Amino acid sequence: MWEYSDKVREHFFNPRNAGPLEDANGIGDVGSIQCGDALRLMLKVNPESEVIEDAHFQTFGCGSAIASSSALTEMIKGMTLDEALKVSNQDIADFLDGLPPEKMHCSVMGREALQAAVANYRGEEWKDDHEEGALVCKCFAVDAVMIEDVIRANNLHTVEEVTFYTKAGGGCAACHEGIEEILAKVKADSPGAGEVSPPPACPATPEAPKPPAKKLSIVEKIKKIEEVLESVRPMLQRDHGDVELADVQGKKIYVHLKGACSGCMMEAATLGGIQQKMIETLGELVQVLPSSHMPAEA
Predict the structure, then answer these.
(1) Is the pTM of this model over 0.70?
(2) pLDDT at residue number 201
(3) Which of 75, 124, 191, 221 has a Cα-to-Cα distance from 111 of 20 to 30 A?
(4) Superfamily per CATH, domain 135-189
């Protein structure tokens, strides 16, 4: 398991400012359906002073995503918009007394949501797909511009670090060569590029969760699936939604989204987040699908 600080645990189990914000006048939506992380940041900005009077969030993802979103809302309340825009993803991680290297992409998502919300308030267009940048990682839809920006902002040196911060390269690995080319470009453009200096020490990589020692029986598998659904249910119920297991057919797990979750614009992200938790818990690749996709009985 990842090693989380006490602050990360606190903001995960007791998130601050979670849920819709009435009278929000700045809203930023970011996220990746492919990886299951999605975040909506809502701001209430004083139109005269541009001070952020309140900030709320709605997110679906891992514990680090929830904690990072909660921390961000606490950090920016009372700031002007220009002050808030200076908050970096590293500031978010530092506020939480650190994040596991593999989860730094959660703080990057928070920074982007803030940029999107401020742009929305100011009536500006903000694009998270950086259309001018070539798509590098097809698995997680990460482009060259984002990778280069994150490398520069966080002084990254290796493909592994880029994956931790953006998820790029964490799938099929076909984009590793492209990431290395961007790393080389940034290094060449940096002051003192001719000097050879070792990369900064990186925290030891926590041991990844291991798959079960033996294949689960169908009863054991369903029990673990129900445990995952039970763990996400309180979060969905806070937004007047719910989820229940519909069927298990091999690698496909069908669920029924209820209440506000049914037909919600974030339905795909919700299913992606549940799928990620299922994979981690079951130790095997599975697909989580809505019950409407169940094959008709012959």
Answers:
(1) no
(2) 45
(3) 191
(4) BFD-like [2Fe-2S]-binding domain (1.10.10.1100)
